[in-house]
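Consortium newsletter contribution from the modelling node. Members have asked for a concrete example of what our holo predictions look like. Here is one, prepared for the NAP complex that several groups have been discussing at recent meetings.
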Amino acid sequence: MVTQRIGVIMNGVTGRMGLNQHLVRSIVAIRRQGGVPLPNGDRLVPDPILVGRNEATLRDIAGAHGIERVSTDLDACLANPADAVYFDATLTSRRVDHVRRALSAGKHVYCEKPLAPTTVDALDLAHRARRRGVKHGVVQDKLFLPGIRKLKRLVDGGFFGRILSVRGEFGYWVFEGTDDDRPPQRPSWNYRKEDGGGIILDMFAHWRYLLDHTFGEVRAVQCTGATHIPERVDEGGRRYAATADDAAYATFLLAGIDGDIVAQFNSSWAVRVYRDDLLQIQVDGIRGSAVCGLHRCFVQPLVATPKPFFDPERPQPMVFDEQWQEMPDIDPVRNGYRAGWELFLRHVVEDAPFPSPFRVGAKSIQLAEACHQSNRERRWVDLAVLEI
Ligand SMILES: NC(=O)c1ccc[n+]([C@@H]2O[C@H](COP(=O)([O-])OP(=O)(O)OC[C@H]3O[C@@H](n4cnc5c(N)ncnc54)[C@H](OP(=O)(O)O)[C@@H]3O)[C@@H](O)[C@H]2O)c1
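And here is the predicted structure:
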């Protein structure tokens, strides 16, 4: 067995996503298990250099995870030919600049979603990457969730017959920061439009690839955005105006194999959870229905569908939740961020297929922009096929 090294410049590992999911649960976990196994028996071991703005924080993180290299000089890192891959999990508003510099330096680039604040910027990055002849990709972690995989298996197996509708309910309460003992769970830039915040740009990036992949391409959208909580408190205890949307109520038209499917998604950081999970999706088809969360999935075929009735004089005697059957687990749970890394590293080294290059990432931003337009103009917006 031969061990192959691959140098990875990681930017944004002092942040929530960069540290917990990409560094600790992906790159460090892969290194601890001896690398990514390749078909020829070799192991591909990522060798990260942590880059950021605060050297002391970077050294603390590196020390805690057995990593030797840190830097506060991105351009010097990009100039080092020994590191072939650039990864970006910095603020959404910083990504385009970082990725352009990495592409100019000839690096393969993997990054968090959304790829850019606008579709034009995202397509520009896709063009540049293609011209430079490097590999490129955007994170699509939600596709690896067990609940979504079970749902996809039901769709592909024809369980639903003709699918009629999809209903997604996403969200949880994000504390405003006004109580000392209830700090906000998300960074304050998420609530400032000028810093790349907003639930539409953040979450619809996920909804686009999830819907496209599971049911069929999103063709049109109608969306109402809202800023339910207009003022919040930031990391430094200062009050600030929340200028970005913190909730969005959208209806999509999807190109299903048996015709159009209507999908409604409510997304909110100002809602309290009374469901089994933070995301719950219900699919109703002619021959059966399913309800899935991030992990579990329940089904009810037509033959087992009850006939409920409405009685204004007595409480409902049927316990509807008990009338569904839970799907068994299909395969071992994989961390979706780590799975994405393994695919991307193999894409770079042995040209293995990778499902979400930059042009696929651009589609997510196209959907977010269409939602903003729909909200502004109070109408349906069609999504054009993106050409690059
Ligand atoms: N796939 C998913 O499920 C998922 C979930 C959440 C977020 N995300 C995406 O991940 C990205 C980061 O989100 P997060 O929640 O992790 O944010 P975060 O906790 O605020 O972290 C932001 C990171 O960006 C760095 N940064 C901030 N300002 C910068 C600047 N001016 N120049 C260079 N670096 C700067 C920060 O470094 P310092 O420590 O130096 O400030 C930190 O490392 C966003 O694009 C977001 O959309 C994806």
